[in-house]
Design a protein that fits this description.
By secondary structure, the protein is of the alpha+beta class. The chain contains 15 helices and ten strands. α8 crosses α9, α8 packs across α11 and α13 crosses α15.
Length: 372
Amino acid sequence: MTEEGADGDEHKYFYALYSYSSQSSQDETGDNQQTAESNGFSLTHVMSDLPEATENHLSQFLFSKISKGQLYNDSGSISSFTFREEEKDTEMSCYYCKLRGADTVNVDINVGQGDFNDSREPRAHVLCFLTPHSNMLDHFRHELDMYALGLFKFLEQDNETQAKVYLEKWAYETTEFLCRSLKLLGQDVKYLMYAALRDAQLVFEGVDNSVQQDLLQFVKSCSLGDMLRQTESPLSGSLDMLTDLTPQSADSKKRTIQVKTDSGQLKFLPEYCTKFCEDWSQSVNSLSRGHPGLIKQVIEAGKLKYTQSINTLKRLMMQAENDYYALYRAYMFLKNSGNCEILLNCAHLELQSETYNVFRCLEEFVSETGVS
């Protein structure tokens, strides 16, 4: 599948689907099947939109990974392989996972599960999503895991036509919602970022369902949920104080933001966000709107900066229990953060009365001085 980016850049996304069995099939022929049989499994091509030569390289790549035990049930891995094409080296980034029959219906995404020692091997498939854009897929691992599991219903029904349609849309559904949202809203994505950090609910009026879905996915990509799920992520070390974020302010109830169509344009009510979200939006809008990987990378950088700010504030609040100067530093930090409202909304330190008193003092002082 080949698509044109917003700035004329050619974006290439591909898929491949194989049936997998741990038992060799005597009916299979061809070099690839022989290689698989020699390792105690068979891998048979079902469908793909890759050029034949590239698909052969992908098969060899998968055989190598499976032989090393690097294929897991219902949880994807991302790696790259290089092959020679038209007298030049070409690198392909590949997401691959094993969908294992009935086990896929109610599955937890746990990397490293491997195969179960069951006497009856369930029906299984190996699914691949590919792109020549290096490092792009790493930013969408969770979205790809979820989308891969969505294929299962079509495999159960042996509905090859619907499976093909579903696979052809993988990039559109899992990555390009960022590009579409940015093209549609421009700088107004700051309201979506605010909604994500404020945990606000979007209420739509007269907005197409497809646009609603894109905006909701954009909000989800800006929230902290996926960062907290990535327990093995290099970022996880900065999230030690985020597991107990239960806002205590009187203003912590669920907020709503209306999104309505007005003269063909989307309008947000209220039209409000913090300076942090405005700056974050400007950073995202400075990028090419046709590169979802770059957009997601800047979004993740903004989320990391936000979590670091929360941790800094909470440490200052802990110090302020016995240090009035730390209370002043906490106030100045909030004043200069450009994100005072959201940080205060998230700053809750367990059930320590002293710290809670510090929090209430900061909240009242901020309110009196009009810091936002």
